[in-house]
C-alpha cells in the first residue's frame, strides 16, 4: 500500500503511532489506547478527542506488533451454527460485515467458523480456546445449559452471546425478543384463522425458538384461540415445504402458518403454488426476520424485522467494550440488551375476498 504522497513522487509519510497521539493530546499512552478501544472507564469527552485526532492523522493500529507484544492473536471469532443454507439469515450477514468494519478500525481482524452439525460446535469452541485462534468469540443460537458457554466461562475467554443463556449474569448478551415475535405472528393471523394456527419454529432447546413458541401459545390463549399446532423443524425452505405438504394435502379450510423465519414461509408458498392454492385466498402466512425478497412474493409476505443493522452495530460495540475490560467489569455487571421485533404487515397474513366472476358476451 502506498501513500498518496508517495504515488505522487513525494516522501513516504511516517506511520502515526500511539505515542504521537499521546504527545499531541498531552495524555498517557495507556489512556489513548483505552480511549481508542472505547473503554467506558475513559470519559466520553476524552474518547471523542482521541478519536477525532486519530481520524485527522489517519491513525491505524499496528495489529501485528500489538499481538506480538500482548501474546494475543488480534482476532475475534464468530461461530455460525447450522444449518448453513441458501438463504442465510440476514442478521448474521449484517453482523459479519459490521463487525469486520469495527474490528479493522480497532486494528483487529475477524475469523469466521462454520459448524456443519450442532454436535461439533463445542469442539470448534474448544479448538479456538486451546489453540488461541482468537481473543474473543461471539456465539448465536444459544441453548439451555449451552455447553459452548460453559466451556468459555471455564476458560476465561471473553465472549458475547446473541441470545439468552443460563448464566447471563456472567457475560454480555444481546437478544431479540422472540416471545414478542411469536405474539405478533398470532395477532396478525388470528382474524383470518378458522382453526388452530400452525406454528413452524426451530428445534426444541434453542432458546430463541422456545421463546417464540411460548409467546405464540400465550397469545393464542389470551385471544381465546385453539392451542397452536407446533412443528419444531430446521429453518430451511425444504423443511417448510415438508410441513406444508402434509398440512395442505387434505385441503383444509384456510389454514394459517406462523413461521419463525421467512425461509420456512418460502417453502409454504412453493407447496401452495404447486397445489394450485393462493396465499391470501386459500391460506394465510406470517414469516419472520424479513429476508431479502420477502416483500416481492405474491402476495407480499407479512413478517417481522429483527432490525438487523441495529443489532449488528450493537453486538459489535458490546464485543469491543468487552475486549477493553480485563475480567469482570468494575461494577460486577455485564451488558444486556433486548431488541423488540418490528411488525411488517403486508398482505399474506389476511384473507381477501375472491373476485366475483363476470360473464361477457
From TrEMBL:
Domain (HTH lacI-type): residue spans on this chain: 29-70
Domain of life the protein comes from: Bacteria
InterPro entries linked to this entry: HTH_LacI, Lambda_DNA-bd_dom_sf, Peripla_BP/Lac1_sug-bd_dom, Peripla_BP_I
Keyword flag Transcription: yes
Pfam families named among the record's database cross-references: LacI (PF00356), Peripla_BP_1 (PF00532)
GO MF: DNA-binding transcription factor activity; transcription cis-regulatory region binding
Keywords: DNA-binding, Transcription, Transcription regulation
Keyword Transcription regulation: yes
PANTHER family found in the cross-reference section: HTH-TYPE TRANSCRIPTIONAL REGULATOR GALS (PTHR30146:SF109), LACI-RELATED TRANSCRIPTIONAL REPRESSOR (PTHR30146)
Protein name: LacI family transcriptional regulator
Organism: Rhodophyticola porphyridii
Taxon lineage: Bacteria, Pseudomonadati, Pseudomonadota, Alphaproteobacteria, Rhodobacterales
Amino acid at each position: 500500500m502506498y501513500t498518496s504522497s508517495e504515488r505522487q513522487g513525494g516522501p513516504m509519510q511516517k506511520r502515526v503511532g500511539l505515542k504521537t497521539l499521546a504527545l499531541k493530546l498531552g495524555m498517557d499512552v495507556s489512556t489513548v489506547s483505552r480511549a481508542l478501544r472505547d473503554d467506558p472507564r475513559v470519559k466520553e469527552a476524552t474518547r471523542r478527542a482521541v478519536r477525532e485526532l486519530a481520524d485527522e492523522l489517519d491513525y491505524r493500529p499496528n495489529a501485528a506488533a500489538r499481538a506480538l507484544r500482548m501474546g494475543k492473536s488480534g482476532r475475534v471469532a464468530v461461530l455460525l451454527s447450522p444449518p448453513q443454507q441458501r438463504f442465510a439469515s440476514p442478521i448474521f450477514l449484517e453482523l459479519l460485515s459490521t463487525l469486520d468494519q469495527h474490528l479493522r478500525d480497532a486494528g483487529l481482524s475477524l475469523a469466521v467458523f462454520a459448524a456443519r452439525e450442532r454436535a461439533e460446535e463445542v469442539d470448534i469452541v474448544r479448538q479456538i480456546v486451546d489453540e488461541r485462534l482468537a481473543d474473543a468469540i461471539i456465539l448465536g443460537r444459544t441453548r439451555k445449559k449451552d455447553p459452548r458457554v460453559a466451556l468459555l466461562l471455564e476458560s476465561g475467554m471473553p465472549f458475547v452471546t446473541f441470545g439468552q443463556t443460563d448464566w447471563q449474569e456472567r457475560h454480555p448478551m444481546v437478544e431479540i425478543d422472540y416471545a414478542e415475535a411469536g405474539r405478533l405472528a398470532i395477532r396478525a393471523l388470528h382474524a383470518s384463522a378458522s382453526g388452530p394456527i400452525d406454528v413452524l419454529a426451530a428445534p426444541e432447546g434453542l432458546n430463541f425458538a422456545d421463546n417464540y413458541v411460548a409467546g405464540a401459545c400465550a397469545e393464542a390463549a389470551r385471544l381465546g384461540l385453539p392451542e397452536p399446532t407446533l412443528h419444531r423443524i430446521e429453518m430451511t425452505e425444504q423443511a417448510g415445504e415438508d410441513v406444508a405438504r402434509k398440512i395442505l394435502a387434505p385441503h383444509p379450510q384456510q389454514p394459517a402458518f406462523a413461521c419463525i423465519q421467512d425461509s420456512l414461509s418460502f417453502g409454504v408458498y412453493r407447496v401452495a403454488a404447486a397445489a394450485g392454492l393462493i396465499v391470501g385466498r386459500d391460506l394465510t402466512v406470517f414469516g419472520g426476520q424479513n429476508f431479502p425478497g420477502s416483500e416481492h412474493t405474491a402476495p407480499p409476505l407479512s413478517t417481522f424485522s429483527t432490525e438487523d443493522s441495529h443489532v449488528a452495530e450493537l453486538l459489535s460495540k458490546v464485543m469491543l467494550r468487552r475486549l477493553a475490560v480485563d475480567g469482570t467489569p468494575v461494577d460486577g455487571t455485564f451488558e444486556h440488551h433486548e431488541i423488540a421485533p418490528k411488525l411488517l404487515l403486508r398482505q399474506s397474513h389476511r384473507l381477501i375476498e375472491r373476485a366475483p366472476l363476470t360473464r361477457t358476451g
